[in-house]
Specification:
The strands form 3 sheets. Strands 5-6-7-8-9 form a 5-stranded mixed sheet, sandwiched between helices. Strands 1-2 form a two-stranded antiparallel ribbon. It has a two-stranded antiparallel ribbon with strand order 3-4. It folds into 2 domains: 73 residues, no CATH class; 295 residues, Adenoviral Proteinase, Chain A (Adenoviral Proteinase, Chain, 3-Layer(aba) Sandwich). By secondary structure, it is of the alpha/beta class. It contains 17 helices and 9 strands. The chain is globular and about 55 Å long. The N terminus is likely disordered. Helix 5 runs parallel beside helix 12. The longest helix is centred in the C-terminal third of the chain and has 24 residues.
Length: 378
């Protein structure tokens, strides 16, 4: 297991001396009173110092010779050659490669990149029960960028589909409960989740046999219908700035092409009428850099609050298990630390020749249960 040393509390003595001299020269003798009048200047300097003092490698194994006190001598040397391939048991082609550059994206006020997001979605999937792995799929962060690519050779939905038609080979796509689609556009991450893509015809087959027919369902049948999984697309956007109708349109087109390919040319229409769009009430970010963290936390909360599948009653309630307080802004920053804790623990396990799945046992409980969805960590 690993302990996080609070390197933010450590100060660089030389830097402090330089800053003190700057204050004296700039502010004159009335140093204390002038500081009170220049809070914004102080805040900038503290922010700069805090960011510089954040050490991505300030972790020590439990039982190591390192002291628990926060002293500069306890901070390990920088590791520019850090390299982790995850999961360990896959061939190099199926692994996600994390480097020191990727780890630096977990520093405060940094954007998560595609590799870190792909890693943690894969981490969640690897810890699903086997029976659930067959029902949940996470697309790569590059899927949507390929699907929405423009150019002279892209004339219609079929051309866009050609860019990604092999991405689901070997997957029983239309029997999935959840298909997660991370979207990056204009330096912002959001998350779209296709729910039960093969279930769009259920209600129409039961209720709309023809324009002149009316089917009367008794109470038992109504209750049964409410418990049956239903199709929708859930939109999680922590800044509410992506054009969700555009993204949804690309996903509908993709689903139609995918259905046709898998069903010998049979056509099926996907639209908002049989696969509605839902934007649940969730916490929103208050800055310009935490969107990737929010997207991962939204996925975690969805799997925790709706562990099996989305039903008609869930759709009608607009996913009422979500609200603005499911996690706090402080939880978002803690989540960065948790992700880094997991990555460094995995690196240690890799070096020791252990299984990547044993990371849960190696983590402290406070980390383990914060990282994994509750339905998976029990």
């Amino acid at each position: 297991m690993w302990h996080l040393i609070d390197s933010m509390s450590l100060e660089e003595e030389d830097e402090d001396d330089d800053e003190d001299e700057e204050y004296v020269e700039f502010e004159g003798k009335r140093r204390t009173s002038t500081r009170l009048q220049n809070k914004s200047l102080q805040k900038k300097k503290r922010k700069k110092k805090r960011k510089k003092n954040f050490d991505l490698y300030s972790f020590h194994p439990i039982g190591s010779t390192s002291s628990s006190k926060n002293t500069r001598s306890n901070i390990p040397h920088h590791q520019p050659d850090f390299h982790l391939q995850y999961p360990f048991h896959f061939s190099s082609e199926g692994r996600i490669n994390l480097t020191s550059t990727d780890l630096e994206r977990l520093a405060p006020e940094e954007f998560l990149n595609d590799t870190v997001i792909d890693f943690f979605f894969r981490f969640i999937w690897e810890h699903l029960p086997t029976i659930r792995q067959k029902k949940i799929h996470f697309f790569s962060t590059h899927f949507y960028s390929q699907l929405s690519r423009t150019g002279a050779d892209i004339r219609n939905a079929a051309d866009r589909y050609n860019n990604v038609q092999n991405w689901t080979n070997g997957i029983d796509f239309f029997n999935m409960d959840y298909v997660f689609v991370p979207v990056n556009d204009q330096l912002h991450w959001s998350l779209f989740v296709i729910c039960n893509p093969g279930k769009i015809q259920y209600l129409s087959n039961r209720r709309n046999v023809s324009s002149s027919s009316i089917i009367h369902l008794d109470q038992e049948e109504e209750e049964e219908e409410e418990e049956v999984s239903s199709s929708c697309i859930i939109v999680f956007d922590s800044l509410r700035c992506h054009k969700k109708e555009t993204v949804i349109g690309y996903l509908y087109d993709y689903l139609e092409c995918e259905w046709e390919r898998r069903n010998a040319g049979e056509k099926r229409k996907f639209s908002i009428s049989n696969m509605p769009m839902i934007s649940p009430t969730v916490p929103l970010q208050k800055n310009g850099f935490d969107c990737g963290i929010f997207s991962i936390m939204y996925a975690r909360e969805l799997l925790s609050r709706y562990p099996k599948a989305i039903t008609r009653i869930d759709i009608e309630s607009k996913l009422s298990n979500f609200n603005k307080t499911i996690f706090s802004l402080a939880d978002v920053q803690d989540f960065r630390d948790y992700m880094l804790q997991v990555i460094l623990t995995l690196n240690k396990l890799s070096q020791d020749g252990a299984s990547h799945l044993s990371v849960v046992e190696e983590l402290p409980d406070c980390i383990k249960y914060a990282m994994l969805p509750r339905c998976l960590s029990c």
